[in-house]
Request: fold
Amino acid sequence: DYLVFDYLAETTMAILAAARAKQPELGWATDFVDTAVKPVLAEVKRQGIKVDSNAGGTNPHGCAAALQALAELEGITLRIAVVEGDDVGAQMPDLRARGVRDMFSGEVLPQKVLSASAYLGAAPIAAALAAGAEVGITGRCVHSAVRLGALMHEFGWTASDFDLLASGSLAGHIIECGCQARGGLHTDW
Reply:
């Protein structure tokens, strides 16, 4: 019923922010549209499969526009929701003025940052699906959120269903990091 794509890591965000700094229409995972969704879009639409992804990186609206253009090119009507709120770059001057410091080092926040993002949770993804989105695109979010948002929507879980949310978060993290949990990051190739 759901197809979930997870693209973002801290390093990926830096790469996407640098790409957007050079070309403002970029900043999102282009292979999400060109490689992952393009070959399956017609079948996803035909079967009513919902798609969730954080492929929006630092430019979720750019990602949505590219996906919309692909859908139109293929004659497919597609309801795409963009989940906003992760980009906190505009708040950096105020945070510096208020004396907020780096949470790990205690150092003053830098004067220049390429991007600054807050991790979004699953609730806005669930809300996008509840509003009728066939595809939900976010920027930075908790890795498990793209899965948990689908679970919340599908099963009607609320913010007070703590045991269910914990189970869904755990399942989302195991799916996302499963290969690492089984030695996928082991360096003895």
Notes: The first strand starts at residue 2 and ends at 5. The chain is about 45% helix and 10% strand.
